Amino acid sequence: MCGSRLHRAVLALQGASRVVVGARRSDRPRQPPPPVRPTPRCSARRRLEVEAAPRPNTDHHISERHHDDHRPAVEGAVSARDYSHAPIASALVRVAVDATPLVGPRTGVGRFVESVLPRLGRLEGIEARPYVLSRSARASELPDGARRVIVPAGVAVKSWGRGGPSFAWAFPQADAIHGTNYIGPPGPHTVVTVHDCTFVTAPERCTPTVAAFGPVVRRVAASGGWIHALSEHVAAEARELFATSRVVAVHLAAGEVSETPESASVGRLAPDAPFILSLATLEARKNLPRLVQAFAAVAARQPDVMLVLAGPDGPDAPAVRDAIEALPAATRERVRTPGFVDDDERAALLTGATVLAYPSLDEGFGLPMLEAWQHDVPVVAARARALPEIAGDAARLVDPLDVDALAGALEDTLTDAAARASLVARGRRRLDAFSWDATVEGLVSIYRRAMERE
User: Fold this and answer.
1) Helix, strand and coil percent figures for the chain, each rounded to 5
2) Cα 51 vs. chain centroid, distance in angstroms?
3) Where, residue-wise, is CATH 3.40.50.2000 in the chain?
C-alpha cells in the first residue's frame, strides 16, 4: 500500500514538472524577488586594509603543500595559479618584474632594474611584465608597459609579512614574479632580490620602511620562494638568517659609460682642484661621519684637496652635518654636499674625482666601485661585508672603524701617482668579471628553478 502511494506521488511530481517546464514564461508562477541588502559604503583603501587583516586561510591553492617539499605550507602563500590563468603552452617564461625602483630619483636599486629589465625583454623565450607597486606614481613616471598595482605598498607589506592576502589579482599574469627590492607576494614561484641584510642584522641603521621588509622575506623563504643575493657574502647571510637553501648569488655590473654632457659641469659641484668623492645616501651604514673626520686629517696636510659628499639625504643626515660643523672653519669650506645628483652629474663627478672613498660598514655589492673603475678612478674602500669579495685586488681596503687608517689610505692614494696608476689598472681588469648579460642569465636560471616547484 505504501509502495503504490509513493509511486503515484512520484508520477504526480514528474507530471507537474513537465507542465512547468513546457509552459509559456507568462504562465509560470512568479517568485518574489530576493530582498536587496544595502551595501555599506567603504573607501577603496579601507576595503584593502580590511582584506589585508590576518584571517584563517580557506583557499585550497594558497595553503597547498608541494609533494617535493617537507616544510609546512605557509598561510597566505601564493602558487603559480595565482599569477597564471592558463597552462604554459611553450617554453615562454612570463616573469612579472617589480619596476617600482624606476619611479623617482634613481638609486642603486633603480640602476639594477633599469639595466636588467630591457635585457630580459630582448631574450628569446622570456616575456618580462613590469609592474609598479605605487598608487601615487604619476602616469609619466611609469616604465613602458608597466602595470600599476593599485594596492598601497604599505598595505601589501603588512599583509605579506603577517600572513594576509597576497593580492595576486592585482599583479600581471606570470609564471614567476621577481621582487627586485626585497619584497614580493610569498609563494614558491616568487624570487626576491636581497641587496644586503642590514635590515635584519642592524635594523637601527635602516628606515622603518626598510626594516619592515624582514617579515616579508622570511615568509617568502618559508613558503618555498627563492632569494637572489648580490654577492656570496649576502647569500651566506641569507641562508642563515632566513633558514633556507634556496638562495643564489648573482653579481651585478656597471652601467654604460656615456660621454659627459657639457651641461653637467663638475664646476657646479666641486672646484677645479683634486677631490675625494663619496657617492652615497646619507645613512648610517655609509659611515660618512668617519669619512669627514678622516678628511680633516688629510686636509691639514694637503691644503688643496676637497671632499664632495654626493647623495640624497637619509636618516644619518644630521650626524653628517654635525661632523662637518665640527671641522675648523677653513676645512669646512672645502666640503661640498650637492645632495642628489642625476646620472649626468654623477658621471661628471666621477670624471673629475681623484679618488673614490667608500668606507661603508655594510654593503651587499658596491656598485660605485665599478663606476669608479670605469672612469679610471682609484678606490679606497672598507674591509667589510661584501666589499672585499667585489673589490678583489682593485681597491685599497681599510678598517672602516679606524679613522686614522682611512685618512692614511686616502692621503697615500692622493699623493702617490704610481699607487693610483696601479689601482686604476687593476680596476680595469676587475671590471671584466662583471657583465649585465651574465647577471640576466643568472636571474633567468633562478626564474626557471622557481617555476619547477609545482
Assistant:
1) 45, 15, 45
2) 25
3) 69-253+439-451, 266-431
